[in-house]
């Protein structure tokens, strides 16, 4: 403590030497720049860099760069000042007009620009303080040329007046006649002064003024004499005080005892001005203002220093007490100066010293003339100076001031000054980036640790509240992050009330995703410290709001931070099993009941993902409430946990080891958990019994209500069950989960209903059980169980003529993972060689789903041979079922040899006489061509697909059965519509595409006139395109349909094609160009 003042002074001196100025507003910078050119002693030119810098060897080019920067900023300041002076001169009211305003009070003088800006600032400040936020925003927009956050923007070196409310309240106390007073520093015209005061007889005005001046000079002389005598008396008293201090500290050092409080009162009360500062002021203001101010500081410093030193000496160890007592009371000893043996009058001395050019009248001059020599005076000085330093520091370097601001705010004795410093801290940087915010937050936490919860609540939280609606998101982000960082250091009542309300407001009102993300993280921290059970429901509402946020960043932060923290609190309250999880399940059930005609998949994902994030907390609760918990001792050899034992958590807060306490403790509990399940059962294990008897049955019931065609829902529930089974372990899955599913599915041939099939097998229960439960573990017996289950489902669905949607959903979900391709091919081969034609037909249709994701090697080795086998099946239905799979191969495979084999097989279906009358086969081929044609290899499309469509259209003209003819024509129409979006060469267009369309039009003329209108338009446009070769050549591979019609017309055409309920006159306009 005895060297703190000198170290801090050195730091401030270095900082003043090295910092750069950015804000050109203060007029002191102009003086600085002007004195720079004149070689003033205060410029960088005259500084001894070897003395003031840290290393003493600063590079010349660095110095030149600094000086050039200072010169440039000074020139900018001069230009700004000139502009302001010009504007003021232009808006200055002439003298004659001012006289008219004074003589006629009813005529109001026009407002000046400076007055307007000042009043604008005060009005905006009033609106903000009284919650007129929208009005303030409108007012700011209307005055876009003014910065309402910075008073310096109003004018140069103009002090900020009180707010409007204080001006209004104080108005009646200062009613003074306008003509009774004259500013002594302003020249006044003689005719402007009214003769309200009687003049001394007939004495001229000039003589009267001379008499008054002479009288005042005499008074000044007398006061100066008194001042000098008092100063000499003060110096004598100071010398005596210093002697007493030295004797007192000598005694306390010898005996290790602090000085008596009564001895401290004397120096602090008698002379604070010279006891604390080395006064070098010589202006007349010292006797009027300086001593009064410093005497008031002395009174407050007396109490503060006495109590703080007593507390410090009583609380530190004896060794520290000796160190403190050995330190001198002041960093300076008594200073004595030789007095000349002269007989000059004090007035002459004063007049002589007035020729020394010292600036003690200004604010900065006053600070320079008083050198702090104690820790408290340093704090006071920093509190006064920092508000003037901060605006002149470069924005990019202002974080360097954070330690000074925080240290001063912590130790400053005045609450008002501390509030101002913390306000500066939160407004230090206009738009702080991530690193700067981290630095400010670090400082806020250090401040909170130092001052305690009461001052954090009273001083830091108001700063956060003021900026909760700041226009810059970076400032609001700082507020959101501060609420979380300060949570451990706030009173618990404030945590669960004010801070929670602030974060709730920001979550619901803030438009910035980053701010809401920070709010969610801070809410998570708050949930880790809150202990008021009444806030549980509010926390649950906040959780639902966060889960439903439109931003993915916010939802991700909810799962990573907020939800695990809230789950931990819910577990402590005993609400995890009895409120949180049941409520989410009920919301899912309600969604499924209300969504029979349209399920809200977004909300379902929201609730189900929340349940999934709660699985680690639920398993930790099961372990902590197990019968063996008391036996879990960390002794002996601790078993290792397999790396793949648990699913990878999305955040550390969802790691079961973190929730339990340590990985070692978890390992011991897991060993006891597996032993208990395998050998002793679940008797008396209430938490696990709730999972087995209530949670699992409700989940399986919900799964049965899901629409199996909803791929997203099936995937979500599959992932949920997979994570649940992996977390609770293999023994739990085999003994508790699988039996419940198997009981519901009842896979046996006795349950086959030839008319409707086993109802549950057509629901989402099948794919979720297959992909969510049976795939949790990949050992050989697990894979065999999965293969057997899929074979049984395929067999039962086929034999019962039930829909195959559940089996298709299983294949789609499993086919997304290449690890299961071999397994699925094994299942399909079982169907290929099955004795029932129904099962073989199902296997053929399943190949279509599998081909798209399987590697070409497996397609060539396993898929094509199986399809070739099925294509020669005795049952025609089996052969027809292979056509979609062959078409998918043509769409996805690139191997030439493989494509030729498939092409030959399809050609045999089309050209073999035995299939000439197979209406269903032709229908399937046409549908397949329309589906795969646009994406198939161009050569295959040009040489095979389009010519065979032409042939099928010709044959259909000869069809005698109208129903079959219309069926084929409808499918041909869809195929031609799809192929019209492809590039078709001129020869192919003339020889096959146009003739096929004309054949199709012939069918539609008799069977469907609505289709015939569209076909006529297509034929007409195609013919025009063929004729107009010059337009077609530069278009290259642009599709015919795209070149004929705009995208809007094309969309209308496709919509009409699906509906075909509009009149022929309207359909004829589909291909008309937009004008």
Describe this structure in words.
This protein has about 1100 residues and is mainly α. The chain has a two-stranded antiparallel ribbon with strand order 1-2. Helix 37 (about 835-850) packs antiparallel against helix 38. About 30% of the residues are buried. The model is unreliable at about 1-60, about 175-205, about 250-330, about 755, about 1035-1050 and about 1060-1075 (pLDDT under 50).
The strand order across the widest sheet is 1-2
Based on secondary structure, the structural category is mainly alpha
Q: Give the mean pLDDT.
A: 75
Identify low-pLDDT runs. 1-58, 176-203, 249-332, 753-757, 1034-1050, 1060-1075
Keywords: Coiled coil, Endosome, Golgi apparatus, Lipid transport, Repeat, Transport
Protein name: LisH domain and HEAT repeat-containing protein KIAA1468
Subcellular location: Golgi apparatus, trans-Golgi network; Recycling endosome
InterPro entries: ARM-like (IPR011989), ARM-type_fold (IPR016024), HEAT_type_2 (IPR021133), LisH (IPR006594), RELCH (IPR040362)
